[in-house]
Amino acid sequence: MPGRHVNDHQMRLYMKHRLHEGAPRAAARAGFSVATAYRIEEDPRLPSQKKAPRERRRVDPLAEISDAEIVPLLKSAPGIRPVGVLEEMLRRHPYLSRGVRRTLERRIRVWRALHGEEREVMFRQVHEPGRLGLSDFTEMQSPGVTVAGIVLDHRLYHFRLACSGFEHAHVILGGESYVALAEGLQNALWALGGAPHEHQSDSLSAAFRNLDREALCAHYGMQPTRNNRGIAHENGAIESPHGHLKSVIRDALLLRGSVDFTDLAAYRCFIDEIVSRVNARNAKRIEAEHPFLQFFPFSLSPSQRRHSLVALARACIATSVER
Questions:
Q1: How far apart (Å, rounded) are the C-alpha atoms in residues 146 and 260?
Q2: How does pLDDT run across 26-66, given as a tens digit for each residue?
Q3: CB distance 180 to 169 below 8 Å
Q4: What's this model's pTM, rounded to 2 decimal places?
Q5: What is the mean pLDDT of residues 247-257?
Q6: Residues facing residue 223 across a β-bridge
Q7: What is the CA radius of gyration of the chain?
Q8: Which letter does DSSP use for residue 21 in this model?
Q9: Where does 132-322 sit in CATH, by number?
Q10: Distance of alpha carbon 106 from alpha carbon 114, whole angstroms
Q11: Are the C-beta atoms of residues 286 and 161 closer than 8 Å to each other?
Q12: Over the stretch 182-217, which tens digit does the pLDDT of each residue have?
């Protein structure tokens, strides 16, 4: 088309059709004139390869002070912000304009990438299907939920599969205990219909302390692990979903028009419904991961499952007390 520059995509399309067709027809398919096609025949480089390197269009305002003042300042105060450097340079050199801020920020970013302090290297995590499930507790004070007019002091036990994003949440009254863990974990696994091969928890939580020496994970054939102390991103597969889940709950409460529930059972049903909606959005991924889970070699009724796991948790507490 007249007035428009030929781009790389058009030229590649032209060269593709030119293998089997004449120049006029290939040019028509690519969307430019025959004259342009003949110019391309003489110079087959892509348009992006023909562009001359962009040169500086104005005098560098930081040329005289960059190596003499800015770099020594960055070396002596590694944590200083670019805006702090800018303010200092403006104080020392009143002729400078605040318009150099972007240039200064870009120059500092490049210098720190090449000569700054070494940064911790993080690799993208690739979660294998059926391998990892995570458990954690999260506080629920901000929504201000009440039961029969009384503020409910509670938290959520939150379980999640790292690969497919299957989630389960259980309302917990009181602190992080083995009984709360057992009740939440068993409900999550039985709702899932299987167990992952590995179960990870927060090493700072009292409920998970010494979990590898207890029979809770062994009951479902899971290998217990804990993230390293102070390394928050290792538990990111469930820490970040905490915030998403609580945001969804907050929105649902606003749509409901009230934060008061008749009883605890009604509130738990409310949470179950919200989590079910979240899982429905990930239904295809959950279904794809399901064959990789460990299936239970036994079958219990809901009441039997509840009593067996609570009894197991109490036995764990008794064992830890004896030790």
A1: 5
A2: 999 999 999 999 998 888 888 888 877 777 777 888 888 99
A3: no
A4: 0.56
A5: 88
A6: 198
A7: 31
A8: S
A9: 3.30.420.10
A10: 13
A11: yes
A12: 888 888 888 888 889 888 887 545 555 554 446 777
